[in-house]
């Protein structure tokens, strides 16, 4: 099942912090300030945060040079307050439009073309082939054989007649010897 799912809907190749990026992008439509615990972030990215993130506040810098920094700066967020004791980080939404619109998909405009009338694809009518005379004769012969077999009774009695070999071995007129 999973193999088929990968073929039908393959996953996009993203960084480890891609799910955090998408989470912040979605939350940006509802809130300007988000406080996330480290365990919540680990749940979002479906992996453990590195040891440096838990012990060093510099890991949470707002720079696009690191993969984690790119995850929130590319969608218009900044890590504002990192509390290592409570294990929380507060993200604030930037007011710049250039950064926030990064995740929006660009819509392609259709160019107006001259309207041409719809012409359906020509359909080829299938001709039904007649069976050959040989095939008809074979089918009729098979049907007759089936009817003959049903009509004829193989034996007149319930007992099967003896074969020639059995007749030779057992002679009803011979007297048994002891």
Question: Number of helical segments?
Answer: 8
**Helical coverage, percent range:** 25-40%
Shape: elongated
Strand elements, count: 3
Q: Order of strands across the widest beta sheet?
A: 1-3-2
Mean pLDDT: 80
Integer-rounded radius of gyration = 42 Å
Q: Which structural category do the helix and sheet elements fall into? A: alpha+beta
**Unreliably modeled segments:** none
Reading the helices and strands in chain order gives: HHEHHHEEHHH
Largest sheet: 3 strands, antiparallel
Percent of sequence in beta strands = 5-15%
- What is the total domain count? 2
In quaternary terms, these chains amount to: single chain
Distance between the termini: 77 Å
Description:
By secondary structure, the protein is of the alpha+beta class. It folds into two domains: 101 residues, no CATH class; 35 residues, no CATH class. Helices cover 37% and strands 10% of the residues. It has eight helices and three strands. Strands 1-3-2 form a three-stranded antiparallel β-sheet. A hairpin with a 4-residue loop joins strand 2 and strand 3. It is elongated. The protein starts with a helix and ends in a 9-residue tail after the last helix. The model has no long low-confidence stretch (mean pLDDT 80).
């Amino acid at each position: 099942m999973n193999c088929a799912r990968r073929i039908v809907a393959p996953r996009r190749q993203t960084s480890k912090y891609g799910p955090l990026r998408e989470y912040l992008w979605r939350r940006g439509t509802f809130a300007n300030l988000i406080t996330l615990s480290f365990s919540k972030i680990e749940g979002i990215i479906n992996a453990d945060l590195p040891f440096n993130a838990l012990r060093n506040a510099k890991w949470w810098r707002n720079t696009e040079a690191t993969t984690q920094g790119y995850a929130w700066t590319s969608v218009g967020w900044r890590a504002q307050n990192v509390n290592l004791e409570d294990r929380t980080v507060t993200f604030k939404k930037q007011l710049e439009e250039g950064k926030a619109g990064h995740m929006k998909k660009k819509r392609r405009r259709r160019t107006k073309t001259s309207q041409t009338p719809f012409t359906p694809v020509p359909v080829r009518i299938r001709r039904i082939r007649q069976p050959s005379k040989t095939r008809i004769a074979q089918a009729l012969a098979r049907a007759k054989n089936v009817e003959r077999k049903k009509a004829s009774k193989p034996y007149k009695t319930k007992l099967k007649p003896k074969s020639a070999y059995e007749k030779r071995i057992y002679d009803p007129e011979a007297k048994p010897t002891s």
